[in-house]
Amino acid sequence: MTGLSHLIESVRSGDARALARAISTIENRAPGWSDLLKALFPHTGKARIIGLTGAPGAGKSTLVDQLAKLYRKQDRTVGIVAVDPTSPYTGGAILGDRIRMQDHFADPGIYIRSMATRGALGGLARTTADVTTVLDASGRDVILIETVGVGQDEVDIVRLADITVVMLVPGMGDDVQTIKAGIMEIADIFVINKSDREGAERVEREIRALQTLGGQQDKVRHDGWTPPIVKTVASEGAGVPELAGAIGEYESYLQKENRALKKIVENWQERLVEMLRDAMLEKARAQFGDGKIALLAAEVAEHKRDPYTLVEEIAAKISKG
Ligand SMILES: Nc1nc2c(ncn2[C@@H]2O[C@H](COP(=O)(O)OP(=O)(O)OP(=O)(O)O)[C@@H](O)[C@H]2O)c(=O)[nH]1
Ligand SMILES: [Mg+2]
User: Fold this and answer.
1) Which ligand 1 atom lies nearest to the CA of residue 238?
2) Who wins on pLDDT, 261 or 303?
3) What is the Cα–Cα distance from 54 to 172, expressed in whole angstroms?
4) 235: exposed, middle or buried (C-beta count within 10 Å: 0-12, 13-18, 19+)?
5) 234 touches ligand 1 (CB under 6 Å)
6) pLDDT for 12-23, tens place per residue?
Protein backbone atom coordinates (compact mmCIF):
# COMPACT_ATOMS: atom_id res chain seq x y z
CA MET A 1 0.00 0.00 0.00
CA THR A 2 2.88 2.37 0.72
CA GLY A 3 4.25 1.57 -2.73
CA LEU A 4 0.89 2.51 -4.13
CA SER A 5 0.58 5.78 -2.26
CA HIS A 6 4.11 6.69 -3.30
CA LEU A 7 3.20 6.02 -6.93
CA ILE A 8 0.05 8.11 -6.59
CA GLU A 9 2.01 11.02 -5.16
CA SER A 10 4.57 10.79 -7.97
CA VAL A 11 1.84 10.65 -10.61
CA ARG A 12 0.16 13.69 -9.10
CA SER A 13 3.43 15.59 -9.14
CA GLY A 14 3.51 14.98 -12.91
CA ASP A 15 6.61 12.78 -12.88
CA ALA A 16 6.91 11.19 -16.34
CA ARG A 17 8.39 7.91 -15.12
CA ALA A 18 5.66 7.48 -12.54
CA LEU A 19 3.12 8.21 -15.27
CA ALA A 20 4.61 5.53 -17.50
CA ARG A 21 4.62 3.03 -14.64
CA ALA A 22 1.04 3.79 -13.63
CA ILE A 23 -0.15 3.52 -17.22
CA SER A 24 1.60 0.19 -17.76
CA THR A 25 0.17 -1.18 -14.53
CA ILE A 26 -3.31 -0.29 -15.66
CA GLU A 27 -2.90 -1.40 -19.27
CA ASN A 28 -1.56 -4.77 -18.21
CA ARG A 29 -4.05 -5.18 -15.41
CA ALA A 30 -1.06 -5.76 -13.15
CA PRO A 31 -1.64 -6.13 -9.39
CA GLY A 32 -2.98 -2.96 -7.85
CA TRP A 33 -4.36 -1.52 -11.10
CA SER A 34 -7.87 -0.94 -9.84
CA ASP A 35 -6.71 0.47 -6.48
CA LEU A 36 -4.57 2.87 -8.44
CA LEU A 37 -7.52 4.08 -10.51
CA LYS A 38 -9.73 4.39 -7.46
CA ALA A 39 -7.13 6.51 -5.72
CA LEU A 40 -6.49 8.71 -8.75
CA PHE A 41 -10.12 9.36 -9.66
CA PRO A 42 -10.76 12.01 -7.00
CA HIS A 43 -7.92 14.03 -8.51
CA THR A 44 -9.41 14.06 -12.00
CA GLY A 45 -11.91 16.29 -13.75
CA LYS A 46 -9.67 19.30 -14.20
CA ALA A 47 -8.12 18.56 -17.58
CA ARG A 48 -9.69 19.70 -20.83
CA ILE A 49 -10.03 16.55 -22.91
CA ILE A 50 -10.00 16.96 -26.67
CA GLY A 51 -10.69 13.98 -28.92
CA LEU A 52 -9.50 14.06 -32.51
CA THR A 53 -10.64 11.46 -34.98
CA GLY A 54 -10.31 10.94 -38.71
CA ALA A 55 -9.33 8.55 -41.46
CA PRO A 56 -5.91 6.91 -41.57
CA GLY A 57 -3.30 9.38 -42.74
CA ALA A 58 -5.61 12.39 -42.52
CA GLY A 59 -2.95 14.27 -40.60
CA LYS A 60 -4.19 13.74 -37.06
CA SER A 61 -0.75 13.30 -35.49
CA THR A 62 0.56 16.34 -37.34
CA LEU A 63 -2.33 18.47 -36.15
CA VAL A 64 -2.19 17.17 -32.58
CA ASP A 65 1.46 18.06 -32.58
CA GLN A 66 0.74 21.59 -33.74
CA LEU A 67 -2.02 22.05 -31.19
CA ALA A 68 0.27 20.76 -28.44
CA LYS A 69 2.90 23.31 -29.45
CA LEU A 70 0.34 26.09 -29.38
CA TYR A 71 -0.92 25.11 -25.94
CA ARG A 72 2.65 24.92 -24.64
CA LYS A 73 3.17 28.49 -25.79
CA GLN A 74 0.19 29.39 -23.62
CA ASP A 75 1.98 27.64 -20.78
CA ARG A 76 -0.52 24.82 -20.58
CA THR A 77 0.74 21.29 -19.97
CA VAL A 78 -0.30 18.66 -22.48
CA GLY A 79 -0.89 14.92 -22.49
CA ILE A 80 -1.25 13.08 -25.79
CA VAL A 81 -2.81 9.66 -26.23
CA ALA A 82 -2.42 8.16 -29.70
CA VAL A 83 -4.84 5.28 -30.01
CA ASP A 84 -4.25 2.30 -32.23
CA PRO A 85 -2.37 3.67 -35.22
CA THR A 86 -2.89 0.39 -37.10
CA SER A 87 -3.64 1.82 -40.51
CA PRO A 88 -1.47 1.06 -43.56
CA TYR A 89 0.33 4.16 -42.37
CA THR A 90 1.20 2.54 -39.08
CA GLY A 91 4.91 2.32 -39.69
CA GLY A 92 5.00 5.96 -40.59
CA ALA A 93 2.70 7.00 -37.80
CA ILE A 94 4.68 5.20 -35.15
CA LEU A 95 7.90 6.52 -36.55
CA GLY A 96 6.28 9.92 -36.66
CA ASP A 97 5.29 9.61 -33.02
CA ARG A 98 8.86 8.75 -32.11
CA ILE A 99 10.14 11.73 -33.98
CA ARG A 100 7.61 13.89 -32.25
CA MET A 101 8.68 12.49 -28.93
CA GLN A 102 12.25 13.49 -29.64
CA ASP A 103 10.98 16.85 -30.74
CA HIS A 104 9.43 17.42 -27.37
CA PHE A 105 12.00 15.43 -25.46
CA ALA A 106 13.35 18.41 -23.57
CA ASP A 107 9.85 19.54 -22.65
CA PRO A 108 8.37 17.72 -19.65
CA GLY A 109 5.21 19.74 -20.33
CA ILE A 110 4.28 17.26 -23.06
CA TYR A 111 3.70 13.60 -22.35
CA ILE A 112 2.95 11.26 -25.27
CA ARG A 113 1.58 7.76 -24.98
CA SER A 114 0.85 5.44 -27.89
CA MET A 115 -1.81 2.92 -26.98
CA ALA A 116 -1.59 -0.79 -27.56
CA THR A 117 -3.55 -2.15 -30.49
CA ARG A 118 -7.06 -3.49 -30.44
CA GLY A 119 -7.61 -6.57 -28.38
CA ALA A 120 -5.92 -4.88 -25.44
CA LEU A 121 -6.91 -6.22 -22.05
CA GLY A 122 -10.12 -4.63 -20.96
CA GLY A 123 -10.91 -3.25 -24.38
CA LEU A 124 -9.53 -0.28 -26.24
CA ALA A 125 -12.10 2.26 -25.16
CA ARG A 126 -11.77 1.29 -21.54
CA THR A 127 -7.98 1.36 -21.43
CA THR A 128 -7.98 4.70 -23.21
CA ALA A 129 -10.37 5.99 -20.57
CA ASP A 130 -8.10 4.69 -17.83
CA VAL A 131 -4.96 6.22 -19.33
CA THR A 132 -6.82 9.52 -19.65
CA THR A 133 -7.71 9.28 -15.97
CA VAL A 134 -4.03 8.92 -15.08
CA LEU A 135 -3.04 11.89 -17.24
CA ASP A 136 -5.85 13.99 -15.80
CA ALA A 137 -4.79 13.14 -12.24
CA SER A 138 -1.23 14.08 -13.13
CA GLY A 139 -2.39 17.65 -13.59
CA ARG A 140 -2.19 17.98 -17.37
CA ASP A 141 -4.16 21.01 -18.48
CA VAL A 142 -5.05 19.62 -21.87
CA ILE A 143 -5.31 16.00 -23.00
CA LEU A 144 -5.40 15.30 -26.72
CA ILE A 145 -6.66 11.89 -27.79
CA GLU A 146 -5.92 10.86 -31.37
CA THR A 147 -7.91 7.97 -32.78
CA VAL A 148 -8.41 6.51 -36.26
CA GLY A 149 -11.78 6.23 -37.95
CA VAL A 150 -15.31 6.42 -36.64
CA GLY A 151 -16.22 2.92 -35.53
CA GLN A 152 -17.91 2.03 -32.26
CA ASP A 153 -14.59 2.09 -30.42
CA GLU A 154 -13.99 5.63 -31.59
CA VAL A 155 -17.45 6.72 -30.59
CA ASP A 156 -16.74 5.24 -27.16
CA ILE A 157 -13.40 6.99 -27.08
CA VAL A 158 -14.79 10.38 -28.00
CA ARG A 159 -17.30 9.93 -25.23
CA LEU A 160 -14.35 10.60 -22.95
CA ALA A 161 -13.77 13.94 -24.54
CA ASP A 162 -15.18 17.31 -23.64
CA ILE A 163 -14.64 18.37 -27.21
CA THR A 164 -14.56 16.18 -30.30
CA VAL A 165 -12.82 17.27 -33.46
CA VAL A 166 -13.58 15.27 -36.60
CA MET A 167 -11.01 15.56 -39.32
CA LEU A 168 -11.76 15.17 -43.01
CA VAL A 169 -9.52 15.58 -46.02
CA PRO A 170 -10.29 16.50 -49.63
CA GLY A 171 -10.32 13.73 -52.17
CA MET A 172 -11.99 11.14 -50.01
CA GLY A 173 -14.87 10.82 -52.46
CA ASP A 174 -17.88 9.25 -50.85
CA ASP A 175 -16.34 9.11 -47.43
CA VAL A 176 -18.27 12.05 -46.10
CA GLN A 177 -21.42 10.17 -47.05
CA THR A 178 -20.20 6.89 -45.68
CA ILE A 179 -19.32 8.15 -42.26
CA LYS A 180 -21.91 10.85 -41.98
CA ALA A 181 -24.13 8.97 -39.54
CA GLY A 182 -21.26 8.65 -37.11
CA ILE A 183 -19.64 12.02 -37.59
CA MET A 184 -22.67 14.25 -37.62
CA GLU A 185 -23.46 13.08 -34.13
CA ILE A 186 -20.05 13.20 -32.56
CA ALA A 187 -18.38 16.23 -34.16
CA ASP A 188 -18.26 19.42 -32.12
CA ILE A 189 -15.85 20.88 -34.63
CA PHE A 190 -14.97 19.82 -38.17
CA VAL A 191 -11.47 20.18 -39.51
CA ILE A 192 -10.73 19.94 -43.20
CA ASN A 193 -7.04 19.18 -43.21
CA LYS A 194 -4.79 19.14 -46.26
CA SER A 195 -6.65 22.20 -47.45
CA ASP A 196 -3.64 22.86 -49.65
CA ARG A 197 -5.12 20.17 -51.86
CA GLU A 198 -7.90 20.60 -54.32
CA GLY A 199 -11.43 19.95 -53.13
CA ALA A 200 -11.42 21.48 -49.65
CA GLU A 201 -14.34 23.76 -50.60
CA ARG A 202 -16.32 20.82 -51.85
CA VAL A 203 -15.86 18.96 -48.57
CA GLU A 204 -16.96 22.07 -46.73
CA ARG A 205 -20.08 22.34 -48.89
CA GLU A 206 -20.88 18.67 -48.25
CA ILE A 207 -20.63 19.09 -44.50
CA ARG A 208 -22.82 22.18 -44.65
CA ALA A 209 -25.34 20.30 -46.75
CA LEU A 210 -25.45 17.46 -44.25
CA GLN A 211 -25.85 19.92 -41.41
CA THR A 212 -28.83 21.52 -43.11
CA LEU A 213 -30.29 18.15 -43.94
CA GLY A 214 -29.96 17.21 -40.30
CA GLY A 215 -31.94 20.33 -39.46
CA GLN A 216 -34.75 19.43 -41.81
CA GLN A 217 -35.03 15.97 -40.37
CA ASP A 218 -35.12 17.47 -36.93
CA LYS A 219 -31.83 15.85 -36.15
CA VAL A 220 -29.97 19.00 -35.17
CA ARG A 221 -27.92 18.62 -32.08
CA HIS A 222 -30.10 18.83 -29.05
CA ASP A 223 -27.77 21.41 -27.52
CA GLY A 224 -28.27 23.80 -30.44
CA TRP A 225 -24.56 24.07 -31.31
CA THR A 226 -23.67 24.19 -34.98
CA PRO A 227 -20.22 22.64 -35.38
CA PRO A 228 -17.92 25.10 -37.12
CA ILE A 229 -15.69 24.02 -40.00
CA VAL A 230 -12.02 24.93 -39.81
CA LYS A 231 -9.66 24.50 -42.75
CA THR A 232 -6.09 23.56 -41.88
CA VAL A 233 -2.79 22.66 -43.44
CA ALA A 234 -1.40 20.86 -40.42
CA SER A 235 1.99 20.24 -41.98
CA GLU A 236 2.50 24.00 -42.21
CA GLY A 237 0.63 24.96 -39.08
CA ALA A 238 -1.93 26.91 -41.09
CA GLY A 239 -5.36 27.18 -39.49
CA VAL A 240 -4.12 25.89 -36.15
CA PRO A 241 -4.74 29.12 -34.23
CA GLU A 242 -8.23 29.19 -35.80
CA LEU A 243 -8.83 25.64 -34.60
CA ALA A 244 -7.68 26.55 -31.10
CA GLY A 245 -10.04 29.52 -31.33
CA ALA A 246 -12.96 27.29 -32.31
CA ILE A 247 -12.14 24.95 -29.43
CA GLY A 248 -12.10 27.94 -27.08
CA GLU A 249 -15.49 29.09 -28.37
CA TYR A 250 -17.02 25.71 -27.84
CA GLU A 251 -15.55 25.66 -24.34
CA SER A 252 -17.23 28.97 -23.53
CA TYR A 253 -20.44 27.68 -25.03
CA LEU A 254 -20.25 24.63 -22.76
CA GLN A 255 -19.74 26.82 -19.73
CA LYS A 256 -23.15 28.41 -20.28
CA GLU A 257 -26.36 26.95 -18.89
CA ASN A 258 -24.54 24.11 -17.21
CA ARG A 259 -23.98 22.41 -20.56
CA ALA A 260 -20.56 21.08 -19.61
CA LEU A 261 -21.94 19.30 -16.59
CA LYS A 262 -24.85 17.92 -18.60
CA LYS A 263 -22.45 16.52 -21.14
CA ILE A 264 -20.28 14.93 -18.49
CA VAL A 265 -23.31 13.34 -16.85
CA GLU A 266 -24.40 11.98 -20.24
CA ASN A 267 -20.94 10.59 -20.87
CA TRP A 268 -20.84 8.94 -17.48
CA GLN A 269 -24.25 7.46 -17.97
CA GLU A 270 -22.96 5.65 -21.04
CA ARG A 271 -19.68 4.73 -19.44
CA LEU A 272 -21.25 3.38 -16.28
CA VAL A 273 -23.49 1.08 -18.28
CA GLU A 274 -20.46 -0.09 -20.22
CA MET A 275 -18.38 -0.63 -17.11
CA LEU A 276 -21.20 -2.56 -15.53
CA ARG A 277 -21.63 -4.73 -18.59
CA ASP A 278 -17.88 -5.41 -18.67
CA ALA A 279 -17.81 -6.27 -14.98
CA MET A 280 -20.77 -8.65 -15.25
CA LEU A 281 -19.33 -10.30 -18.33
CA GLU A 282 -15.99 -10.74 -16.65
CA LYS A 283 -17.67 -12.37 -13.70
CA ALA A 284 -19.67 -14.68 -15.92
CA ARG A 285 -16.57 -15.63 -17.87
CA ALA A 286 -14.60 -16.29 -14.70
CA GLN A 287 -17.38 -18.50 -13.41
CA PHE A 288 -18.02 -20.49 -16.54
CA GLY A 289 -14.92 -20.20 -18.64
CA ASP A 290 -15.06 -19.80 -22.40
CA GLY A 291 -15.26 -23.55 -22.95
CA LYS A 292 -18.42 -23.84 -20.93
CA ILE A 293 -20.03 -20.99 -22.81
CA ALA A 294 -19.23 -22.75 -26.09
CA LEU A 295 -20.92 -25.90 -24.76
CA LEU A 296 -23.99 -23.93 -23.72
CA ALA A 297 -24.07 -22.27 -27.13
CA ALA A 298 -24.10 -25.70 -28.77
CA GLU A 299 -26.99 -26.77 -26.57
CA VAL A 300 -28.97 -23.70 -27.52
CA ALA A 301 -28.17 -24.24 -31.20
CA GLU A 302 -29.50 -27.77 -30.94
CA HIS A 303 -32.57 -26.47 -29.16
CA LYS A 304 -31.79 -28.56 -26.11
CA ARG A 305 -32.08 -25.44 -23.99
CA ASP A 306 -33.72 -22.10 -24.43
CA PRO A 307 -31.40 -19.07 -24.20
CA TYR A 308 -33.83 -17.02 -22.10
CA THR A 309 -33.84 -19.35 -19.13
CA LEU A 310 -30.15 -19.92 -19.54
CA VAL A 311 -29.30 -16.22 -19.32
CA GLU A 312 -31.62 -15.81 -16.34
CA GLU A 313 -29.81 -18.65 -14.59
CA ILE A 314 -26.38 -17.23 -15.32
CA ALA A 315 -27.41 -13.74 -14.19
CA ALA A 316 -28.84 -15.17 -10.96
CA LYS A 317 -25.62 -17.08 -10.30
CA ILE A 318 -23.27 -14.13 -10.84
CA SER A 319 -25.36 -11.82 -8.70
CA LYS A 320 -24.93 -14.32 -5.88
CA GLY A 321 -21.24 -14.94 -6.54
N1 LIG B 1 -0.26 18.13 -48.05
C2 LIG B 1 -0.46 17.99 -46.75
N3 LIG B 1 0.07 16.95 -46.09
C4 LIG B 1 -0.18 16.82 -44.76
C5 LIG B 1 -0.96 17.77 -44.07
N6 LIG B 1 -1.04 17.39 -42.79
C7 LIG B 1 -0.33 16.25 -42.67
N8 LIG B 1 0.19 15.90 -43.87
C9 LIG B 1 1.01 14.72 -44.17
O10 LIG B 1 0.17 13.57 -44.18
C11 LIG B 1 0.88 12.44 -43.73
C12 LIG B 1 0.13 11.74 -42.62
O13 LIG B 1 0.12 12.58 -41.48
P14 LIG B 1 -0.13 12.03 -40.02
O15 LIG B 1 -0.17 13.22 -39.12
O16 LIG B 1 0.81 10.94 -39.67
O17 LIG B 1 -1.59 11.42 -40.21
P18 LIG B 1 -2.44 10.58 -39.15
O19 LIG B 1 -3.86 10.92 -39.41
O20 LIG B 1 -1.93 10.78 -37.78
O21 LIG B 1 -2.13 9.11 -39.63
P22 LIG B 1 -2.48 7.73 -38.86
O23 LIG B 1 -2.16 7.93 -37.42
O24 LIG B 1 -1.62 6.72 -39.52
O25 LIG B 1 -3.92 7.47 -39.12
C26 LIG B 1 2.25 12.94 -43.32
O27 LIG B 1 3.15 12.70 -44.35
C28 LIG B 1 2.03 14.43 -43.11
O29 LIG B 1 3.19 15.17 -43.30
C30 LIG B 1 -1.52 18.87 -44.80
O31 LIG B 1 -2.23 19.71 -44.28
N32 LIG B 1 -1.23 18.93 -46.14
MG1 LIG C 1 -1.27 9.37 -36.35
Assistant:
1) 31
2) 303
3) 11
4) middle
5) yes
6) 998 989 999 999
